[in-house]
Structures are given as structure tokens and as C-alpha cells.
């Protein structure tokens, strides 16, 4: 079974899964809210790349799941499945930490950056959900195949025990020895398969724990976005209230000016009247 035949993504199927983690150092140039935009970009790109990686792993598991239990099922395939799940789970754990870090970094950013982080988290959470379902399906199928193999071993034990009971004494001893060797081999195989099944089951549990962390992270980000929207709403209300106050102030100022103008006109008229009276008295 070739890796390409199952659509195995490039770089998967090996034990070394260097996660594309990016805990970039904070720099002092162009900081927003005390954090570097360079770190924001680096974390965002890393999370997006890891999301694609997990998606490719999920697609491989879907193809491998259809191969389990068929004539093409072999130990090499199961080794690859275990390797992929181990490496992908490490990548998921690293990306979860990057998302937590990015949530802290973006607190000093603007609304658009916060919405970008929310989308990255949503996309990553969705692909991890698909991946987790594939893991659970593979674990169930491997358990089913394991139980079938155990039943076949029981049938072999019963069959060979019956043959040994009807043979001659010497042949009996020889066949019992062969039977013990066969049973020991089968038992070792069953123990090894059971161990591998436990590893896959443990990987599924790890992903479930991470899913809970992602759900909590999504809730925190939603609260941050709600807070931003509320702040914007309060700002709009304050601006509207300020505009209303300015309109009222303008009205008061216009009224004051009208009053001053009326008083000025009255004063001029009174002045003219007084002047006329004085002039008429002087003439008389």
C-alpha cells in the first residue's frame, strides 16, 4: 500500500512532525496595544497553514477508513494511521496554543483583526471536528476487526485441540507443541493490535480535550467581539447626544443674538427719540 495511493498528504507518514508553531518574539517597531503586528501576521499564517494540514490528514483518514477490513488492510496501513494521528494531534495542540496566544495579541488590534482571529478559530475548529469524527470511526472499525480476529483464534484453538485428541501419543505431543507455538504467536499479535487500538483511542480522547479548549476560546472571542460592538454602539449614542447638544447650543446662541439685536435697536430708537427731544427744546 503506497502512501500516494491513499492520498497521504506530503510530509505525513513519518514520525517527525515539526509543528509549524510560531511564537514570534515581540518587537518594538509598529506595536499596537504593546504587541507586534509581525507576531500577529506570523501566528495567523501558521494557524492557516496548520488548518490545511489537519484537513489533509482528515482526508487521508477518510480514505484509510474505507480500506480497513478489506483485502488491502495490513499492518503497514495501521502504522501509518497511528503515525498520522499522533503527528496531527501534536499539530492541533500546537495550533490551539497559537490561537490562545493570538487572542492575547489581538486585544490591542482593531475590529477587523479581531474578526480575522475569530474566523481562523472557526475554520480550525470545524476541520478538527471533521478530523475527530474520522478518528472515532476508525477506532470503532479497528475494534470491530480486532474482535473478528479474536473469534478466528478461538476457532483455531478448538479445531486443533480436537485433532490432537484423536492422534497417536507421539503425534499428540508434537501437535500440542505446534498448537502452543501457534497460540503464542496469535496471542502476541492480538496484544500488539490491542495496544495499537488503545493508542488510537487515546488520540481520539486527546482531540476531544482540545475541542473543549477551542469551544472555550470561541466563547471568549465572541465576548470580545460583543464588547467591541457594544463600545461602538455607546460611541454612536454619545456622538448623537453630542450632536443634539450642539444643536441646542446653536439655538440658544441664535436666541441670544436676536435678543442683543433687539435691545440694540431699542437703544438706538430711544437714543434718536431723546436726541430729537433735546434738539426741539434747543430750537424753542
* SSE topology string: HHHH
Please tell me how large the radius of gyration is. 40 Å
Biggest sheet, in brief?
A: none
Number of helices: 4
- Provide the CATH architecture of one domain: Up-down Bundle
End-to-end separation in angstroms reads: 134 Å
CATH fold-level name of one domain: Methane Monooxygenase Hydroxylase, Chain G, domain 1
Structural class: mainly alpha
Assign an overall shape: rod-shaped
Spans of 5+ residues with little confidence (pLDDT < 50)?
11-33, 148-154
What's the total count of β strands?
Answer: 0
Percent strand = under 5%
Question: Mind telling me the CATH class of one domain?
Answer: Mainly Alpha
Task: Describe the protein in words.
- There is one protein chain.
- This protein is mostly helical.
- It has a domain at 37-157 and 174-221: Methane Monooxygenase Hydroxylase, Chain G, domain 1 (Up-down Bundle), CATH 1.20.58.70.
- Helix content is 82%, strand content 0%.
- The protein has four helices and no strands.
- It has helices at residues 37-67, 75-105, 111-166, 169-283.
- Helix 1 runs antiparallel to helix 2 (75-105), helix 1 (37-67) runs parallel beside helix 3 (111-166) and helix 3 packs antiparallel against helix 4.
- The radius of gyration is 40 Å and the shape is rod-shaped.
- It starts with 36 loop residues before the first helix and ends with a helix.
- It comes from Anopheles culicifacies.
- Keywords: Membrane, Neurotransmitter transport, Transmembrane, Transmembrane helix, Transport.
- One of its GO terms (biological process) is intracellular protein transport.
- The chain crosses the membrane at residues 260-279.
- This is t-SNARE coiled-coil homology domain-containing protein.
Amino acid at each position: 500500500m503506497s502512501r500516494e495511493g491513499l492520498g497521504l498528504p506530503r510530509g505525513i507518514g513519518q514520525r517527525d512532525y515539526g509543528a509549524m508553531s510560531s511564537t514570534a518574539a515581540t518587537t518594538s517597531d509598529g506595536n499596537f496595544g504593546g504587541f507586534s503586528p509581525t507576531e500577529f501576521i506570523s501566528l495567523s499564517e501558521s494557524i492557516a497553514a496548520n488548518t490545511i494540514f489537519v484537513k489533509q490528514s482528515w482526508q487521508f483518514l477518510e480514505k484509510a477508513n474505507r480500506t480497513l477490513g478489506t483485502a488491502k488492510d495490513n499492518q503497514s496501513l495501521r502504522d501509518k494511521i497511528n503515525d498520522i494521528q499522533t503527528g496531527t494531534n501534536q499539530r492541533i495542540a500546537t495550533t490551539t496554543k497559537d490561537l490562545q496566544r493570538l487572542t492575547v495579541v489581538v486585544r490591542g488590534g482593531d475590529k477587523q483583526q479581531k474578526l480575522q482571529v475569530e474566523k481562523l478559530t472557526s475554520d480550525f475548529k470545524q476541520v478538527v471536528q471533521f478530523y475527530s469524527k474520522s478518528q472515532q470511526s476508525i477506532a470503532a472499525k479497528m475494534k470491530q476487526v480486532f474482535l473478528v480476529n479474536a473469534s478466528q483464534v478461538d476457532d483455531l484453538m478448538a479445531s486443533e485441540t480436537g485433532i490432537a485428541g484423536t492422534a497417536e501419543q507421539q503425534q499428540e505431543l508434537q501437535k500440542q507443541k505446534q498448537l502452543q507455538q501457534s497460540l503464542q504467536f496469535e496471542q502476541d499479535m492480538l496484544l500488539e493490535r490491542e495496544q495499537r487500538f488503545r493508542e488510537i483511542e487515546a488520540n481520539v480522547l486527546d482531540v476531544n480535550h482540545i475541542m473543549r479548549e477551542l469551544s472555550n476560546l470561541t466563547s471568549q472571542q465572541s465576548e470580545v467581539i460583543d464588547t467591541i460592538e457594544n463600545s461602538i454602539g455607546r460611541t454612536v449614542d454619545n456622538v448623537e447626544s453630542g450632536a443634539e447638544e450642539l444643536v441646542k447650543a446653536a439655538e440658544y446662541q441664535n436666541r441670544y443674538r436676536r435678543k442683543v439685536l433687539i435691545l440694540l435697536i431699542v437703544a438706538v430708537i430711544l437714543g434718536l427719540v431723546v436726541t430729537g427731544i433735546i434738539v426741539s427744546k434747543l430750537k424753542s
